[in-house]
Amino acid sequence: MPEQALSDYLAYLLASANRQMKLGVTQSIADEQVTEEHWRILQAVSDEQGHAMGELAETVLLNHPALTKNIDKLVSRGLVQRAQDENDSRKVLVYISDRGLELVARLRRSVDAHHDAIEEALGLRNTKELKRLLGKLIRESQAD
What we know:
Elements: H1 10-29, H2 36-45, E1 51-52, H3 53-59, H4 64-76, E2 80-84, E3 92-96, H5 98-122, H6 124-143
Antiparallel strand pairs: 1-3, 2-3
Helix pairs in contact: 1-5, 5-6
């Protein structure tokens, strides 16, 4: 039986696609001097609801130490702030600042333009199908 090429493995293809997507997003927002992780955090907290660190870590796909390091950087730039939860003093919530809202609006335009270029290359139907299949893969793998 012939050896299977690395590029035949779904895990490899997903990792490669993730790498390319992350690189594209990073390049599209480079002028704002933020990382792709910063964009994910700012996008997540842009609803102005206040997010607990644990929930936020899960949402933005970062472990707690990495999230804390990134939040520290965003706080130092005045883009987010931390506050104690009024209902649970053990909990710290992260809120976006007005400056952060202004930045996330600019970032959204850049990231949307990047995604539009990918959609144009794949076609609308293929893009929707890819999103559907990836969503299904994520849901199914979480059930395990």
